[in-house]
What we know:
Radius of gyration of chain A: 25 Å
Low-confidence stretches of chain B: none
Oligomer: heterodimer
Number of strands of chain B: 0
Number of domains of chain A: 1
Order of helices and strands of chain B: HHH
Helix content of chain A: 25-40%
Number of strands of chain A: 9
Number of helices of chain A: 11
Mean pLDDT of chain A: 89
Radius of gyration of chain B: 14 Å
Largest sheet of chain A: 7 strands, mixed
Distance between the termini of chain B: 26 Å
Strand order of the largest sheet of chain A: 5-4-3-6-7-9-8
CATH superfamily of chain A: Vaccinia Virus protein VP39
Largest interface: A-B, 25 and 28 residues
Distance between the termini of chain A: 60 Å
Number of helices of chain B: 3
CATH topology of chain A: Rossmann fold
Shape of chain B: elongated
CATH class of chain A: Alpha Beta
Structural class of chain B: mainly alpha
Strand content of chain A: 15-25%
CATH architecture of chain A: 3-Layer(aba) Sandwich
Mean pLDDT of chain B: 89
Order of helices and strands of chain A: EEHHHEHEHEEHEHHEHHEH
Shape of chain A: globular
Low-confidence stretches of chain A: 1-6
Amino acid sequence: MRLAIPRVCLPRRSGPFLAGSTRRWYAFQAPGGPIFQVFNPRTKWLQKERSAANVEPSRQSDYLKDEIASRVCERLVDIKRDFPRVLDLGANSCNIARALTREIVDPDPSVPVIPPLSSKIGELVAAESSQSLLYRDANLAFNDELQLARQVLRDDETLPFDAESFDMVLSSMSMHWINDLPGVLAQINNVLKPDCPFIGAMLGGDTLFELRTSLQLAEQERRGGISPRVSPLADVRDVGGLLQKAGFTMLTVDVEDIIVDFPDMFALMEDLQAMGESNAVLGREMGPIGRDVLLAGDAIYRQLHGNEDGTIPATFRIIHMIGWRVSEDQAKPLKRGTGQVNLKDILENK
Amino acid sequence: MQPKTRPIQRFAAAASKCSAEAAVYGKCIVEDYNSVHKDKCVKEFMKLKDCFLVAKGGK
Lengths: 350, 59
């Protein structure tokens, strides 16, 4: 924001013109830096509402969100604590709540089955801006297996919660639609109690690069130009910096690729629509993609990325992040060079 | 349970019948995808589109 006091007009005088004597500016920088608007939140909201209105296709296409939610919850196994009050930010259709009520079965049969994690959690607050999506599964059985409070948010980027009111914040598959990621992370840090974790997962990096490149080539060849069809996404390298900037400590950031095979490009796009994950980039071309571009895109997708068996792969790259709210009595890394035991001895004798 | 097939499903069904033409068009683009320009493969695309329109039938 820049305020300017109107120029003071003085009668012209002869003699040397003194720069600065006739003009006085008052300028200051708004705190927090500029916020870049990339996505249209209202479009995203509409897409989620529409997807939830079609209950069956919406449930069928929940496979990705359920899978990622369960991977987020698996990370809780390593934290030996109970969490009286937990926030699920951007809950979609409460996929995290569903994952928490399931047993964790390891593919290796010698690993014991872990009982549902909901026993560690007192109350789960599921916050989401799309009411239809949030309440889509409100009368399914898993609702009775943990204490779940649903809360509809006015918008995805403002957390209406008191400071230091949660023992953990979870977020799965929603933060890639947030414009002001640094601001939201700072708010998450604020609602956490000291020494409490934030565990999140969002799409990033090379997610859907096959679709992106195929549509770009198709549009370039058919129409002689391209428009944004796949969101710009945060990269792994950015996320560490963002978490640090928001004040989290003991960061863990890692990446997982989930590759899903589809029969054709149209099936992929239909599923994305049913998930409510269609394009919501500001400045995208309005209206549907032209038929010529679709036809060309499918042909290019198959040729450029297709599998041997005629299916096409779609990559979803998930960025997992864990950060802890700073606290005085938190374990801190020791100073460099204070180590007494050689790590090599431990690892070799194991 | 949707009573009628969505347009995109009919589109996909018709497009799947032209895999040979699609492969020719795809090869034309992919063999030099760093210098794609408008109508680079217009001949191949028109063949694909003719096949698609026949497969789709009707309107």
